[in-house]
Amino acid sequence: MRFLIIFLFLSALVHAQTPYVLVLGVTQDGGYPQAGCNTPNCLDAWEGRRPPLYVTSLAIVDPLTKQRWLIDATPDFKYQLQLLKTNTQNPSNDLAGIFLTHAHIGHYTGLMHLGREALGAKNVKVYAMPLMQRFLENNGPWSQLVSLKNIDIQPLTDSTWIVLNERISIQPFTVPHRAEYSETVGFRIRTNNKTFVYIPDIDKWSLWKKDLNDVVRAADYAFIDATFFADGEIPRPMSEVPHPFVSETMKLLEKLPKTEKQKVYFTHFNHTNPLLRPETKEFIQTAKEGYKVAVQGQMIEL
């Protein structure tokens, strides 16, 4: 019995020190509820019947070293920083770095909170691809963050691994997406035990040189773009925002066994997406097929 107690204690200790990903937000760039939205779905949030949800972002946490990294700095940065501080029981505002996916409004504009008007941060490492770096350095107000040394831009190279510490590495990889201001990347996070793939924004899967089936098979977790569930979801041409529909993604992955489908977590939901509401037939069918829906505040052990 004594040996069992010791074993359980040591197992719990190891469990508590395992690196993990914390889901800081799950919605598309406009958040939930979205500005100007008066549909019943948004009114539930405006009137307090459902909680508001933050824009899609992740934190990578190493409890052993107490290091914390963000993927993307969203318009909800201040709330997400507080969520991270509460989750890690660490009141410090220090971040080991921020990795940016691209230059659409939901993914970098939270950097403003690092400026002199708010945190007045010092040399926060911001990891960016070449066009993203150029965009920040040559356009105000972001260039002021650079000149005042609120941020320290670290260059990223496509498909090149970066060692964060002895236990965690991260790799950016380019994906097709509207490139008005920068390239777009997903990220692959790797520990000694797990591989986590993150693709919050992409155009249609057919435009990517990779096979999503292979990407899922090679990972332990795959958090992927689920902006819209199906065509006709918004009252304007959806070709303007050509994300893969969840219905298309499930069709593409339909031949995977359920054990592989269970690796897939949908995220980056538009305010119109029925996956935001667990009672909808679309949510129920998605879960029945084995897929998962990302939840704000969720922890994924690595």
Fold topology:
Elements: H1 2-16, E1 20-25, H2 40-46, E2 57-62, E3 67-71, H3 77-88, E4 97-99, H4 105-108, E5 124-128, H5 130-138, H6 142-147, E6 151-155, E7 162-163, E8 169-174, E9 185-190, E10 195-199, H7 212-217, E11 221-225, H8 246-252, H9 258-261, E12 264-267, H10 281-288, E13 292-293, E14 299-301
Parallel strand pairs: 3-4, 4-5, 5-6, 10-11, 11-12, 12-13
Antiparallel strand pairs: 1-2, 1-14, 2-3, 7-8, 8-9, 9-10
Description:
It contains 10 helices and 14 strands. By secondary structure, the protein is an alpha/beta fold. The strands form 2 sheets. Strands 6-5-4-3-2-1-14 form a 7-stranded mixed sheet. A 7-stranded mixed sheet has the order 7-8-9-10-11-12-13, covered by helices on one side.
Strand content: 15-25%
| Count, helices | 10
Placed side by side, the strands forming the largest sheet appear as 6-5-4-3-2-1-14
Largest sheet: 7 strands, mixed
- Approximate shape: globular
- How would you state the average pLDDT, rounded? 94
Helix content: 25-40%
Total number of beta strands:
14
Report the uncertain regions. Answer: 3-14
Structural class: alpha/beta
Rounded Rg: 19 Å
Give the ordered list of helices and strands. Answer: HEHEEHEHEHHEEEEEHEHHEHEE
Gap between N and C termini, in Å?
30 Å
InterPro entries: Metallo-B-lactamas (IPR001279), RibonucZ/Hydroxyglut_hydro (IPR036866)
Protein name: MBL fold metallo-hydrolase
Domain Metallo-beta-lactamase: 68-269
